[in-house]
Write a structure and sequence with these properties.
By secondary structure, the protein is α/β, with parallel strands linked by helices. The protein has ten helices and ten strands. It is 35% helix and 23% strand. 36% of the residues are buried. The structure holds adenosine-5'-triphosphate and magnesium ion (MG). The site of adenosine-5'-triphosphate has 12 residues, from strand 2 and helix 1. Forms a stable energy-coupling factor (ECF) transporter complex composed of 2 membrane-embedded substrate-binding proteins (S component), 2 ATP-binding proteins (A component) and 2 transmembrane proteins (T component).
Amino acid sequence: MDIQFKEVGYAYQGFKKQYHALKNINLEIEKEGEFIAIVGQTGSGKSTLVQHLNALMKPTSGTINILGTVLPSKKKIKVNHLRQKVGLVFQFPEYQLFEENILKDVEFGPSNFKETKDHKTEYAKKSLKLVGIDESLYEESPFRISGGQMRRVAIAGILAMNPNILVLDEPTRGLDPQGKDDIMDLFNEIHVQEHKTIIMITHDMDIVAKYAKRVVVLNQGEIVFDGKKDDLFQHEDFHTFHLDYPTHMRMMNHLHETLGIKKKFVKNQDELLSYLKEVFK
Ligand SMILES: Nc1ncnc2c1ncn2[C@@H]1O[C@H](COP(=O)(O)OP(=O)(O)OP(=O)(O)O)[C@@H](O)[C@H]1O
Ligand SMILES: [Mg+2]
Protein backbone atom coordinates (compact mmCIF):
# COMPACT_ATOMS: atom_id res chain seq x y z
CA MET A 1 0.00 0.00 0.00
CA ASP A 2 1.44 3.36 -1.01
CA ILE A 3 -0.34 5.63 1.46
CA GLN A 4 -1.74 4.30 4.69
CA PHE A 5 -3.46 6.20 7.50
CA LYS A 6 -3.67 4.31 10.78
CA GLU A 7 -6.04 5.72 13.37
CA VAL A 8 -5.08 9.25 12.38
CA GLY A 9 -6.38 12.15 14.37
CA TYR A 10 -5.67 15.83 13.94
CA ALA A 11 -6.44 18.53 16.49
CA TYR A 12 -6.07 22.23 15.72
CA GLN A 13 -4.61 23.99 18.71
CA GLY A 14 -6.88 26.89 19.57
CA PHE A 15 -6.34 29.65 22.09
CA LYS A 16 -7.79 27.72 25.01
CA LYS A 17 -8.93 24.39 23.63
CA GLN A 18 -8.24 21.97 20.83
CA TYR A 19 -10.52 21.32 17.88
CA HIS A 20 -10.53 17.73 16.68
CA ALA A 21 -10.84 18.12 12.91
CA LEU A 22 -9.97 14.48 12.12
CA LYS A 23 -10.81 11.44 14.21
CA ASN A 24 -9.69 7.85 13.84
CA ILE A 25 -9.01 7.97 10.11
CA ASN A 26 -8.08 4.63 8.54
CA LEU A 27 -7.45 4.92 4.84
CA GLU A 28 -5.39 3.16 2.20
CA ILE A 29 -4.53 4.62 -1.18
CA GLU A 30 -2.58 3.23 -4.13
CA LYS A 31 -0.24 5.47 -6.05
CA GLU A 32 -1.55 4.22 -9.38
CA GLY A 33 -4.96 3.78 -10.88
CA GLU A 34 -7.23 5.39 -8.28
CA PHE A 35 -9.66 8.23 -8.83
CA ILE A 36 -11.01 9.16 -5.43
CA ALA A 37 -13.53 11.87 -4.62
CA ILE A 38 -13.45 13.20 -1.07
CA VAL A 39 -16.81 14.64 -0.16
CA GLY A 40 -18.66 15.86 2.91
CA GLN A 41 -20.28 18.91 4.40
CA THR A 42 -18.36 22.11 4.84
CA GLY A 43 -16.13 21.83 7.90
CA SER A 44 -16.10 18.02 7.80
CA GLY A 45 -12.29 17.89 7.56
CA LYS A 46 -11.63 17.38 3.84
CA SER A 47 -8.92 20.01 3.42
CA THR A 48 -7.31 18.99 6.70
CA LEU A 49 -7.23 15.38 5.50
CA VAL A 50 -5.63 16.06 2.11
CA GLN A 51 -2.92 18.24 3.61
CA HIS A 52 -1.71 15.13 5.41
CA LEU A 53 -1.11 13.41 2.07
CA ASN A 54 2.09 15.32 1.34
CA ALA A 55 3.15 15.91 4.94
CA LEU A 56 2.08 19.54 4.97
CA MET A 57 0.25 18.60 8.15
CA LYS A 58 1.27 15.84 10.53
CA PRO A 59 -1.12 13.72 12.57
CA THR A 60 -1.49 14.64 16.23
CA SER A 61 -2.44 11.01 16.90
CA GLY A 62 -1.98 7.80 14.93
CA THR A 63 0.45 7.43 12.03
CA ILE A 64 0.54 7.91 8.32
CA ASN A 65 2.84 6.10 5.94
CA ILE A 66 3.43 8.03 2.74
CA LEU A 67 5.41 6.04 0.18
CA GLY A 68 7.55 4.54 2.96
CA THR A 69 7.95 7.67 5.11
CA VAL A 70 6.16 7.29 8.43
CA LEU A 71 4.83 10.36 10.22
CA PRO A 72 4.94 11.68 12.81
CA SER A 73 8.53 10.69 13.43
CA LYS A 74 10.51 11.02 16.65
CA LYS A 75 13.66 11.65 14.63
CA LYS A 76 14.00 14.66 12.40
CA ILE A 77 13.39 13.40 8.87
CA LYS A 78 13.17 15.00 5.48
CA VAL A 79 9.72 15.22 3.97
CA ASN A 80 10.44 17.62 1.13
CA HIS A 81 10.63 14.85 -1.49
CA LEU A 82 7.03 13.93 -0.68
CA ARG A 83 5.90 17.30 -2.01
CA GLN A 84 7.19 16.23 -5.42
CA LYS A 85 5.69 12.74 -5.29
CA VAL A 86 2.31 13.91 -4.04
CA GLY A 87 1.33 17.11 -5.84
CA LEU A 88 -1.19 19.16 -3.91
CA VAL A 89 -3.25 21.81 -5.65
CA PHE A 90 -4.93 24.04 -3.08
CA GLN A 91 -8.34 25.58 -3.28
CA PHE A 92 -8.01 28.74 -5.43
CA PRO A 93 -4.41 27.93 -6.37
CA GLU A 94 -4.24 31.05 -8.52
CA TYR A 95 -3.60 33.06 -5.34
CA GLN A 96 -0.20 31.39 -5.12
CA LEU A 97 1.14 32.60 -8.45
CA PHE A 98 4.02 34.98 -7.88
CA GLU A 99 6.65 34.98 -10.63
CA GLU A 100 7.09 37.72 -13.21
CA ASN A 101 6.01 35.53 -16.08
CA ILE A 102 3.98 32.38 -16.63
CA LEU A 103 6.81 30.10 -17.72
CA LYS A 104 8.96 31.02 -14.69
CA ASP A 105 6.04 30.45 -12.38
CA VAL A 106 5.50 26.93 -13.69
CA GLU A 107 9.25 26.20 -13.57
CA PHE A 108 9.39 27.10 -9.89
CA GLY A 109 8.01 23.76 -8.63
CA PRO A 110 10.33 21.47 -10.60
CA SER A 111 13.35 23.71 -9.83
CA ASN A 112 13.07 22.64 -6.19
CA PHE A 113 13.60 18.92 -6.63
CA LYS A 114 16.56 16.96 -7.86
CA GLU A 115 14.31 14.63 -9.86
CA THR A 116 12.96 17.47 -11.98
CA LYS A 117 15.42 20.37 -11.67
CA ASP A 118 17.46 19.66 -14.81
CA HIS A 119 14.34 19.36 -16.93
CA LYS A 120 12.33 22.17 -15.41
CA THR A 121 11.78 24.08 -18.68
CA GLU A 122 10.85 20.95 -20.60
CA TYR A 123 8.41 19.86 -17.87
CA ALA A 124 6.98 23.35 -17.54
CA LYS A 125 6.32 23.64 -21.27
CA LYS A 126 4.81 20.18 -21.42
CA SER A 127 2.48 20.95 -18.51
CA LEU A 128 1.43 24.31 -19.92
CA LYS A 129 0.57 22.59 -23.17
CA LEU A 130 -1.43 19.97 -21.29
CA VAL A 131 -3.52 22.59 -19.48
CA GLY A 132 -4.08 24.47 -22.73
CA ILE A 133 -1.96 27.59 -22.18
CA ASP A 134 -0.60 28.82 -25.48
CA GLU A 135 3.11 29.50 -26.03
CA SER A 136 2.33 33.11 -26.84
CA LEU A 137 1.45 33.61 -23.14
CA TYR A 138 4.71 32.25 -21.66
CA GLU A 139 6.24 35.70 -21.20
CA GLU A 140 3.01 37.24 -19.95
CA SER A 141 2.58 38.12 -16.27
CA PRO A 142 0.46 35.49 -14.47
CA PHE A 143 -1.59 38.36 -13.07
CA ARG A 144 -2.65 39.65 -16.46
CA ILE A 145 -4.63 36.62 -17.62
CA SER A 146 -8.18 35.52 -16.81
CA GLY A 147 -9.09 33.72 -13.58
CA GLY A 148 -9.65 30.44 -15.42
CA GLN A 149 -6.27 30.73 -17.13
CA MET A 150 -4.60 31.53 -13.79
CA ARG A 151 -6.08 28.34 -12.37
CA ARG A 152 -4.63 26.40 -15.31
CA VAL A 153 -1.19 27.94 -14.83
CA ALA A 154 -1.24 27.07 -11.13
CA ILE A 155 -2.21 23.48 -11.93
CA ALA A 156 0.56 23.30 -14.55
CA GLY A 157 2.99 24.31 -11.79
CA ILE A 158 2.10 21.17 -9.86
CA LEU A 159 1.99 18.91 -12.94
CA ALA A 160 5.49 20.09 -13.90
CA MET A 161 6.87 18.36 -10.78
CA ASN A 162 5.65 15.15 -12.35
CA PRO A 163 3.98 13.85 -9.18
CA ASN A 164 2.78 10.25 -8.90
CA ILE A 165 -0.33 11.32 -7.07
CA LEU A 166 -2.30 14.44 -7.83
CA VAL A 167 -4.38 15.89 -5.00
CA LEU A 168 -6.85 18.66 -5.78
CA ASP A 169 -8.87 20.72 -3.33
CA GLU A 170 -12.06 21.78 -5.15
CA PRO A 171 -10.40 22.46 -8.50
CA THR A 172 -13.64 23.36 -10.29
CA ARG A 173 -14.95 25.83 -7.75
CA GLY A 174 -15.78 29.19 -9.29
CA LEU A 175 -15.22 28.06 -12.89
CA ASP A 176 -17.91 28.38 -15.56
CA PRO A 177 -19.51 25.14 -16.88
CA GLN A 178 -17.17 24.93 -19.89
CA GLY A 179 -14.12 25.64 -17.69
CA LYS A 180 -15.27 22.90 -15.30
CA ASP A 181 -15.64 20.34 -18.10
CA ASP A 182 -12.28 21.26 -19.61
CA ILE A 183 -10.37 20.94 -16.38
CA MET A 184 -12.12 17.71 -15.40
CA ASP A 185 -11.36 16.24 -18.81
CA LEU A 186 -7.73 17.17 -18.26
CA PHE A 187 -7.55 15.35 -14.92
CA ASN A 188 -9.33 12.39 -16.41
CA GLU A 189 -6.86 12.31 -19.28
CA ILE A 190 -3.92 12.34 -16.86
CA HIS A 191 -5.59 9.55 -14.93
CA VAL A 192 -6.41 7.39 -17.96
CA GLN A 193 -3.21 7.94 -19.95
CA GLU A 194 -0.64 8.01 -17.18
CA HIS A 195 -2.52 5.90 -14.62
CA LYS A 196 -1.81 8.53 -11.99
CA THR A 197 -3.91 8.46 -8.88
CA ILE A 198 -6.20 11.47 -8.60
CA ILE A 199 -7.63 12.50 -5.25
CA MET A 200 -10.14 15.29 -5.49
CA ILE A 201 -12.22 17.20 -2.98
CA THR A 202 -15.51 18.30 -4.45
CA HIS A 203 -19.02 19.37 -3.50
CA ASP A 204 -20.23 18.60 -7.02
CA MET A 205 -22.01 15.24 -7.13
CA ASP A 206 -22.27 15.35 -10.94
CA ILE A 207 -18.47 15.32 -11.03
CA VAL A 208 -18.39 12.45 -8.55
CA ALA A 209 -20.88 10.47 -10.66
CA LYS A 210 -19.01 11.12 -13.90
CA TYR A 211 -15.36 10.78 -12.95
CA ALA A 212 -14.68 9.19 -9.57
CA LYS A 213 -14.25 5.46 -9.05
CA ARG A 214 -14.11 5.54 -5.28
CA VAL A 215 -15.68 7.98 -2.85
CA VAL A 216 -14.63 8.79 0.70
CA VAL A 217 -17.29 10.60 2.73
CA LEU A 218 -16.29 12.63 5.75
CA ASN A 219 -18.69 13.71 8.44
CA GLN A 220 -17.49 15.70 11.44
CA GLY A 221 -13.92 14.52 11.00
CA GLU A 222 -14.74 10.85 10.55
CA ILE A 223 -14.92 8.61 7.50
CA VAL A 224 -18.52 7.45 7.28
CA PHE A 225 -18.26 5.80 3.85
CA ASP A 226 -15.38 4.55 1.70
CA GLY A 227 -16.31 2.60 -1.39
CA LYS A 228 -17.61 2.56 -4.94
CA LYS A 229 -19.71 5.52 -6.06
CA ASP A 230 -22.61 3.31 -7.16
CA ASP A 231 -22.76 1.84 -3.66
CA LEU A 232 -22.70 5.33 -2.17
CA PHE A 233 -25.61 6.60 -4.25
CA GLN A 234 -27.67 3.49 -3.44
CA HIS A 235 -26.74 3.52 0.27
CA GLU A 236 -29.75 3.30 2.55
CA ASP A 237 -28.18 5.79 4.98
CA PHE A 238 -27.36 8.27 2.21
CA HIS A 239 -29.40 11.02 3.89
CA THR A 240 -27.14 10.86 6.96
CA PHE A 241 -24.13 11.85 4.83
CA HIS A 242 -25.52 15.35 4.16
CA LEU A 243 -24.84 15.09 0.43
CA ASP A 244 -26.86 15.82 -2.69
CA TYR A 245 -27.68 13.23 -5.31
CA PRO A 246 -26.31 13.85 -8.81
CA THR A 247 -28.67 15.66 -11.25
CA HIS A 248 -29.84 12.53 -13.10
CA MET A 249 -30.84 10.87 -9.81
CA ARG A 250 -32.64 13.99 -8.64
CA MET A 251 -34.52 14.02 -11.94
CA MET A 252 -35.47 10.39 -11.43
CA ASN A 253 -36.77 11.20 -7.94
CA HIS A 254 -38.69 14.16 -9.32
CA LEU A 255 -40.28 12.07 -12.08
CA HIS A 256 -41.22 9.48 -9.50
CA GLU A 257 -42.88 12.07 -7.26
CA THR A 258 -44.66 14.02 -9.99
CA LEU A 259 -45.54 11.34 -12.55
CA GLY A 260 -45.37 8.24 -10.41
CA ILE A 261 -42.68 6.66 -12.56
CA LYS A 262 -41.15 3.64 -10.85
CA LYS A 263 -37.72 4.51 -9.42
CA LYS A 264 -34.69 2.77 -10.82
CA PHE A 265 -30.99 3.37 -10.09
CA VAL A 266 -29.39 5.06 -13.09
CA LYS A 267 -25.70 5.90 -13.37
CA ASN A 268 -25.93 8.88 -15.72
CA GLN A 269 -28.20 10.94 -17.95
CA ASP A 270 -27.97 8.46 -20.83
CA GLU A 271 -29.22 5.65 -18.61
CA LEU A 272 -32.03 7.87 -17.38
CA LEU A 273 -33.05 8.69 -20.97
CA SER A 274 -33.02 5.04 -22.07
CA TYR A 275 -35.12 4.14 -19.05
CA LEU A 276 -37.65 6.89 -19.82
CA LYS A 277 -37.88 5.79 -23.46
CA GLU A 278 -38.64 2.31 -22.17
CA VAL A 279 -41.31 3.62 -19.77
CA PHE A 280 -43.04 5.80 -22.39
CA LYS A 281 -42.86 3.31 -25.23
N1 LIG B 1 -6.34 26.76 11.27
C1 LIG B 1 -7.40 26.27 11.93
N2 LIG B 1 -7.54 26.47 13.25
C2 LIG B 1 -8.60 25.97 13.93
N3 LIG B 1 -9.58 25.24 13.38
C3 LIG B 1 -9.50 25.01 12.06
C4 LIG B 1 -8.41 25.52 11.26
N4 LIG B 1 -8.60 25.13 9.99
C5 LIG B 1 -9.75 24.41 9.99
N5 LIG B 1 -10.29 24.35 11.23
C6 LIG B 1 -11.53 23.65 11.60
O1 LIG B 1 -11.41 22.27 11.29
C7 LIG B 1 -12.60 21.77 10.71
C8 LIG B 1 -12.29 21.12 9.38
O2 LIG B 1 -11.84 22.10 8.48
P1 LIG B 1 -11.52 21.79 6.96
O3 LIG B 1 -11.02 23.05 6.36
O4 LIG B 1 -10.65 20.59 6.89
O5 LIG B 1 -12.99 21.43 6.40
P2 LIG B 1 -13.47 21.16 4.91
O6 LIG B 1 -14.20 19.87 4.92
O7 LIG B 1 -12.33 21.31 3.97
O8 LIG B 1 -14.53 22.35 4.67
P3 LIG B 1 -14.91 23.15 3.31
O9 LIG B 1 -15.82 22.26 2.52
O10 LIG B 1 -15.65 24.35 3.84
O11 LIG B 1 -13.65 23.52 2.60
C9 LIG B 1 -13.56 22.96 10.60
O12 LIG B 1 -14.49 22.89 11.62
C10 LIG B 1 -12.68 24.17 10.76
O13 LIG B 1 -13.36 25.21 11.41
MG1 LIG C 1 -11.87 22.70 2.43
